[in-house]
Each structure stands twice: as C-alpha cells, then as structure tokens.
Amino acid sequence: MLRAAVYPLAAIVALALIFLLISKLHAVAVLASGLAVVAGGWLAARIALNGGAQAAASAVGRLVAAMALKWVLVIGVLAIGIIQFRFPPMALLAGIAVGMMFQVLALARR
C-alpha cells in the first residue's frame, strides 16, 4: 500500500509545481485535493485490509465502508475548498483526477 501512496503523492507535487506557474492558490488547491485522495486511499486500505480472514459478507462490508469513507473525505475536502477557501474548482478537480489516476496505476503495476 505504500507504493499506492507514494506514486500519487509524487504526481500531485509535480502537478502543484506546474500550477504554481499560474498562482499559489492554484498550487495549494491541487495539493489539498491530491492529499485528500492519498489520505483517503490510505485510510480505506487500513479499514478494508485490517480484518484478517473473514466471511464474505463481512469482507465486502468492510470494502464498501472503506470506499464510502474515502469518497466522503474527498468530497468533503472538495466542498470545503470551494465554499470556504474559494479555491479554483478546476485546480481541485485536477488534483483529484491525477491522484486517482496515479493511485490506480500504482496498484495495477506489478
């Protein structure tokens, strides 16, 4: 799971450096949403994979709860970033998209 957190984090930092050319606010927005994706993925992995051998219904329940918690965290950061901090929405969405894309690529890599 460490690899699934390191690769997206590196991609988020690189994207934030690119958005820094536009403004500091854009770079902070990318970092905020990207870190929410990485933290949500880490938290979801801890919840989903921390039960040992279980019955199928219990394992699926843990997976669903983990995924729901991850998306609540990501959508919460998105909402707070837009409403309270007035972050640029496209920068927030770019951070989420890049974080999710690199998280999936890191997990698919063998």
UniProtKB/TrEMBL annotation:
Key words of the record: Membrane, Transmembrane, Transmembrane helix
Source taxon at top rank: Bacteria
TM annotation in the entry: 5-22, 28-49, 61-83, 89-108
Protein name per UniProt: Membrane protein
The organism of origin for this protein: Stenotrophomonas ginsengisoli
